[in-house]
Amino acid sequence: MVVLDVRHLRYYYRTRRGAVKAVDDVSFSIDSGKTLALVGESGCGKTSTATAILRLLPRNVDTYEGQVFLDGQDVTAFSNEEFRSKVRWRGISMVFQGAMNALSPTTRCGPQVAEPLRIHYDSSGEEALAAAGEALRNVGLPDYVGERYPHELSGGMKQRVVIAMALVMKPRMVILDEPTSALDVMTQANIINLLKRLQKEIGVAYLFITHDLGLASELATDVAIMYAGRIVEIGTASKVYSAPKHPYTEKLIHSVPRLRSEETPEFIPGAPPDLTNAPLGCRFHPRCPYAFELCGWSSSELAATLARQAPGVEIEDVSLAGVDKYDTKDPWKLVIWPGKGTPASSLASSLRELAAGRRSSVPFLRAIEKIDERDGRVVVRLHPAQMPELMGEDDQRAACWLLQKEGGGSGTT
Ligand SMILES: Nc1ncnc2c1ncn2[C@@H]1O[C@H](COP(=O)(O)OP(=O)(O)OP(=O)(O)O)[C@@H](O)[C@H]1O
Ligand code: SF4
Ligand SMILES: [Mg+2]
Questions:
Q1: Longest dimension (CA), the chain
Q2: Would residue 71 count as lying in a domain?
């Protein structure tokens, strides 16, 4: 049975540089007692997805759209007060990123764990403290921890306190945002085992946020790979791990170091995009080794690369000499003004030569559809880009044009 169903969630922040499209049309669902791992590089929008689900919005929210269903009920239709009293903590709770360092240093752990009960159920102090004691025991902590201040506990113990707090209201769903990232590997393993045990005992569902694919594989039944504010691959963990369909997932898997392998881990060239000005078409195209004409090289990217000014694009020896300036007003048409003494015809033939000779090894050259000379300028037509949607069967879908091109196989596996 589906506990959490997120549909077309969009969540942008307003900044002076424009809207940061941190969550851009994200959809997924989680069944009761299951775990969906949300995996991706730093800044791809994982925490923003969680705070958007819980409607914890900052002042600079620019866009907040989509629907969230909890146990089949559309909670986006709730008023703020109804959402606070019925959904947050009771229905969906969250272990925030770095939360163990945010425990109040002046309050003992027992009363801190009891706080949600006092606020939401109006429980008496004693009742709430007794329930907090039980929650602390359930996460494997000895009774004296309730009497201790956070600074008297180890990192692993503090993290257990935070998990107890998230579970004290017996929610159906817990969002765990990097719950073990500040802990050593042994303590990490203990916390993961604890989460597994609790899930088995109480049937809670988890949205497990991490940038660590290895860790995600320990807990997750399903995996969603996020890149630049979008889910680019989603499916059952076994399928996504053994046969990734999206080139980004493939690169992520190959970037994990393996203890018993001689192979050097791969790295992903370039940098994640600026979310105020994400690349057109597939957002991964500037870093994708398989990019082809449908994937979305725009005129400004082509100009920046030819002028060797493209940030995050590592193409060593492609450049165009004899250019005065580039006009990139139309994203799918690049107009090049030749420099003094360079005829447009020779500039056009240099570019044609480059495009023909290096097409197979330099992905962005595949986006060039046509090169013409007009009024002493060179006009380059590019394939118009489109953003790929998730394609494939329900147990594994990926947002990559290769799947359409090759009728279901990406060629990346
Ligand atoms: N309040 C805010 N105002 C403006 N931009 C923000 C705000 N909060 C987050 N962002 C931006 O939104 C994008 C997504 O941030 P988010 O914290 O969701 O990423 P993340 O995937 O959780 O990263 P990490 O793995 O580092 O925790 C980033 O570019 C971030 O700088
Ligand atoms: S659509 Fe696929 S092939 Fe094209 S850039 Fe994106 S990930 Fe690469
Ligand atoms: Mg985060």
A1: 88
A2: yes
